[in-house]
């Protein structure tokens, strides 16, 4: 290009950069999402959001979070479905590229029709912001200067009429630059499409914007800025070009213009001044079993949860998602049993499309589709000649960083050797047969990575005297492999094990055995529920959920003669301030899927030890409503004291309710818990024994108990193993190092009060747990944390991270190598603590829905901060070097401050004094709550 061609562009850039240097405050984070189901939680990371008015979206709820929702509204065009609603004379022509009618807003009747039938219904729907599109559409239909002037005047009158009828309406214009001199004081901001990259609707292709067009648009945007308006540039790139989208957004922001870069259909979460980091992983399997009984749920979910990601397990037999997952999901993990699943063709097409769109894929077990050249060559894999018969082979290479995590790799079965060569990527494991052919059985690829059976998880065989599934151990390092294959970035992630720098601690009691007569001499023939009350709950004031099986207490239930006495004991338990009331259903279903499938099985034993559920007189047909809602209401009326209600449903038996039953707990406004549970011990020190956070069933999330109960540690509560629950301490230790995978969960049944050894083991576990540095919470609080983990949003800005919508999950975690959070002058950050190779950051939201900024620095802060506390940090903010914070706990407050030497610490207005322990100052208070200020010279 000749120098003279650059001069106009250089002049514009000089002006733009001058504006940019003085107008950083005018940049807004905006997103436009036109899909039917906007990702509400992710969109809350943005200040402004534009959605289609018929989307599943609540503008009132969004606005309450301190954000602004704008309804997409075409002022200049109408879609084909609206043709019959347009009054005569209100159509100027057609936009053939979009297949829409061009509207005539010069006529008063047309403007009135728009206000009456378009804008007013949106106002009633709750929208207070409107994205006015197609303001220049009339130029396609009218060509004379006079006709165009009349159209402009009509649009000006329309905008004035909108503000006259709705003075608080926020109007965001898409172009309409010619209107601005007359109405700029009525407008919130102005947007324009395609500053650097655009979408051609006629050809349905992406295209770079010609330089001359770019210069003209930039000139118009800068002119709008001079009117005092924030300006926005909306650019378009394919979903797979995420890195380019980030670069373009930064380039636009450098001009002082708020950016948003998305795909042509505006159906992905694009990039603005921030870009939201997707935190969902789609996990696919095929088979007759439900998702709860898959390797994805048993083994793969937990490492992904630890890495900071929420998992969605789907059976491909019921279909695959439509459209691209880019921007919505961080990656896909598949775990198929073989290469010949019935849905192989659909799965291959789906995965290839997502790979092309830049969504990483990790394949575990088998490919799920034919392992032939036609399928594998596009994936960078070549297949050699597959000889017939049994192929003996051996391991010739393994990368110790990825292979041999808990047990050594093994050769493929003689009938399962696949001569496979990785052409592009990094080999992790290679096998070789006697003829010299190799099988690259695991590798990292440009599209993600794969690891084939049997070198994913090794099943070790049944142990002597043990029932149930044989223990398994990871051959593949799931933490390292999944992070690399899915290209998961090093960033702050929400944590569910820790709060305020301390490991969470809770206790939960399942209702089984409440009416058992105790064998303990002192309490001979007393009910086990009363023993637990006197020996545990009265002595250890630890936040505990006590759940009750309703049929134990009803007058016509399992124990009609003792019901009144049992209810009196239950009421005494429920009245304790450190006990929350929970339901353990009506009849304690042991096999939820069977009863859901055939309610008439109620009362039958089948091949189960106790039957499908407890046999309650008169209850002959299973009712999910009775087990969930009715049982909760009964406990509220007959056991819970005034002012306290059931806060938790603890699932019974196999803890496998279906989506319909799970939904009942949500409709009852009660959180749920149970299923899963860690059982890692010194005898089986495998992270395969640690389950994930829970599982989505339909729209709802079932929260797993962090640890297993004493029934598992005592061989199903049989003699001579009643003391076996002490091994839970091994689980507590192993799930804390080298990675803290779970909080402490003291999980037991009332029947532990029936045996001396069982009660002694329980007291030993509780005593050990209370000696640790923990933050004690109720199990319902943990359920809140687990649910909110899936909602938490993290977005990346130019130099900072922004976390929002994290609810009760207030502890965030980073690798130590990322540095320290900058604290001075912040709102919502209270401090940090280190545990092993990670650093926990204590977050407290400054206001409902407001994001918290985390800026990382290599330098340790010098201002005072909370190192750790045994309570929730509800508020925190810095005023210069002074720190103000509030704590809300369930026990006497214990907290430690760093960098507080020479500072005054006030509890309200009262000075308090701590004990110096090395670089920290420790404070002990009797109160469970408090507001504190640290004032430093």
TrEMBL record:
Pfam families given in the database record: Glyco_hydro_114
Positions of the Glycoside-hydrolase family GH114 TIM-barrel domain: 62-266
CDD domains the record matches: CE4_PelA_like_C
Gene3D superfamilies linked to this entry: Aldolase class I (3.20.20.70)
Protein's recorded name: Glycoside-hydrolase family GH114 TIM-barrel domain-containing protein
Native source species: Acidiferrobacter thiooxydans
